[in-house]
Amino acid sequence: MNWLTNYVRPKIRALYARKEVPDNLWHKCPSCESMLFHRELEENLHVCQHCGFHMRLDPVKRLETMFDDGAYEGVELPKSVADPLKFRDQKRYTDRLKEAQTKTGRTDAIVVGEGRIGGHAAVVAAFDFGFMGGSMGIAVGEGLLTAARLAVAKNAPLIVVPASGGARMQEGILSLMQMPRTTIAVEMVKEAGLPYIVVLTDPTTGGVTASFAMLGDIHIAEKGAQIGFAGARVIESTIRETLPEGFQRSEYLLEHGMVDMVVHRRDLRPTLVRTIGLLMTPRIDAVVEDLDLTAAQGAVQGVGGEPAQLPQGTVAQPGTPLPPATQATAAQPASTAEPVQAGD
C-alpha cells in the first residue's frame, strides 16, 4: 500500500471552529428594544439604562437588594396540598407545578426572608412571576400567613412585594379563599401595631389587588408598574369607552390617590429605610397623671422665676399655652435692677 494514502488527515477545521456563545449575554429591552449587556443590566437592577423600563426581578435578587448588606435568612414555608381538585386542562396541574418548580428552582410563587433594613428587623415576602405568573394558591396563602406570624413574633414590619396575575385557576374556590386568609394575615400585623408596607411591582392584578396588595399602611409603586383588577381590554369592552393614556400604571394611580409614592428601583431601599425608621421610632408619652397644682406651677415658670398661676386641676403638658395674664407679663423682659423712682 502506498504510504501517501495511509495517513490521518489533520482536523484543520477544528482550529477555526466557532466557539459556543452563551445565549444570556445580551437582553432586549421590552420597551425600547435596546440591546443590554447582562452585567450592566445586573448592576442596574434590571432597569433599562436607555428608557428606564423596569423589568421583572427575581425574588431572591430583590431580597438581596432590600436587606442590609444583602444578608437575610430564608424562611421555610409549610407544605400544602399540591393538587386538591385533581385539576386537568390541556395538562395535569401536577405536571404544570413540576415544570414551574424545575424552571424556577422553588416550590411555589412566594419567597419569605427575614433580616434587617436600616438596622430594624423586617420580614419581606416577595412573589415570583416566573412561577405560573405569580398566581396565588394555597401555598401562597400559607406563605403570607407565615410571614405575618413571624413579623408579629419578631415585632418587625411586614413588607410584601406582589408580582402576580391573580388567583390560581387550577385550585378553584380554594384559591379564592386565599383572599380573606391574606386579609386576616394583614389584620394580625396591624392589630400588633406594626407597619404593613406594600411594594407594588409589574404586574399586580386580579385577586391579589383585591385583597392584601391594597391594604397597606404605605403603598410604594415601582415606575411604570401595571396595577389593577381586570385587564384594560376587558374594561374597555365592558364600559365601551376608550381608557385614558397610562391607565392602570403606577404614575396614573399616584395622581388619583391610589398609591403613596412612585420610586425608581435604585431608590427603593433608601425609601424603605427612611419609612421604617419613621414608623418604628419609639413614641414617648408626655402625659403625666395625677399631677398636683404645685408640680404644675413649677412646670410653667412665670416672670422673675415665679410659677405661673394655673387653674385648679390643670395638668401641665409640653407646649401648654400660658394664661392670658401670664402671656402679657412674659412678653416684657424680666429685670433684676431696682426700679428708678421719678425725681431721683
TrEMBL record:
<keyword id="KW-0808">Transferase</keyword>
<keyword id="KW-0547">Nucleotide-binding</keyword>
<comment type="pathway">
    <text>Lipid metabolism; malonyl-CoA biosynthesis; malonyl-CoA from acetyl-CoA: step 1/1.</text>
</comment>
<keyword id="KW-0444">Lipid biosynthesis</keyword>
<comment type="similarity">
    <text>Belongs to the AccD/PCCB family.</text>
</comment>
<dbReference type="InterPro" id="IPR000438">
    <property type="entry name" value="Acetyl_CoA_COase_Trfase_b_su"/>
</dbReference>
<keyword id="KW-0863">Zinc-finger</keyword>
<dbReference type="Pfam" id="PF17848">
    <property type="entry name" value="Zn_ribbon_ACC"/>
</dbReference>
<keyword id="KW-0067">ATP-binding</keyword>
<feature type="binding site">
    <location>
        <position position="29"/>
    </location>
    <ligand>
        <name>Zn(2+)</name>
    </ligand>
</feature>
<keyword id="KW-0276">Fatty acid metabolism</keyword>
<comment type="function">
    <text>Component of the acetyl coenzyme A carboxylase (ACC) complex. Biotin carboxylase (BC) catalyzes the carboxylation of biotin on its carrier protein (BCCP) and then the CO(2) group is transferred by the transcarboxylase to acetyl-CoA to form malonyl-CoA.</text>
</comment>
<dbReference type="InterPro" id="IPR034733">
    <property type="entry name" value="AcCoA_carboxyl_beta"/>
</dbReference>
<keyword id="KW-0479">Metal-binding</keyword>
<keyword id="KW-0862">Zinc</keyword>
<feature type="binding site">
    <location>
        <position position="51"/>
    </location>
    <ligand>
        <name>Zn(2+)</name>
    </ligand>
</feature>
<dbReference type="Pfam" id="PF01039">
    <property type="entry name" value="Carboxyl_trans"/>
</dbReference>
<keyword id="KW-0436">Ligase</keyword>
<dbReference type="InterPro" id="IPR011762">
    <property type="entry name" value="COA_CT_N"/>
</dbReference>
<dbReference type="InterPro" id="IPR029045">
    <property type="entry name" value="ClpP/crotonase-like_dom_sf"/>
</dbReference>
<feature type="compositionally biased region" description="Low complexity">
    <location>
        <begin position="325"/>
        <end position="344"/>
    </location>
</feature>
<feature type="zinc finger region" description="C4-type">
    <location>
        <begin position="29"/>
        <end position="51"/>
    </location>
</feature>
<feature type="binding site">
    <location>
        <position position="48"/>
    </location>
    <ligand>
        <name>Zn(2+)</name>
    </ligand>
</feature>
<feature type="domain" description="CoA carboxyltransferase N-terminal">
    <location>
        <begin position="25"/>
        <end position="294"/>
    </location>
</feature>
<feature type="binding site">
    <location>
        <position position="32"/>
    </location>
    <ligand>
        <name>Zn(2+)</name>
    </ligand>
</feature>
<comment type="subunit">
    <text>Acetyl-CoA carboxylase is a heterohexamer composed of biotin carboxyl carrier protein (AccB), biotin carboxylase (AccC) and two subunits each of ACCase subunit alpha (AccA) and ACCase subunit beta (AccD).</text>
</comment>
<feature type="region of interest" description="Disordered">
    <location>
        <begin position="304"/>
        <end position="344"/>
    </location>
</feature>
<keyword id="KW-0275">Fatty acid biosynthesis</keyword>
<keyword id="KW-0963">Cytoplasm</keyword>
<dbReference type="GO" id="GO:0003989">
    <property type="term" value="F:acetyl-CoA carboxylase activity"/>
</dbReference>
<keyword id="KW-0443">Lipid metabolism</keyword>
<protein>
    <recommendedName>
        <fullName>Acetyl-coenzyme A carboxylase carboxyl transferase subunit beta</fullName>
        <ecNumber>2.1.3.15</ecNumber>
    </recommendedName>
</protein>
<dbReference type="InterPro" id="IPR041010">
    <property type="entry name" value="Znf-ACC"/>
</dbReference>
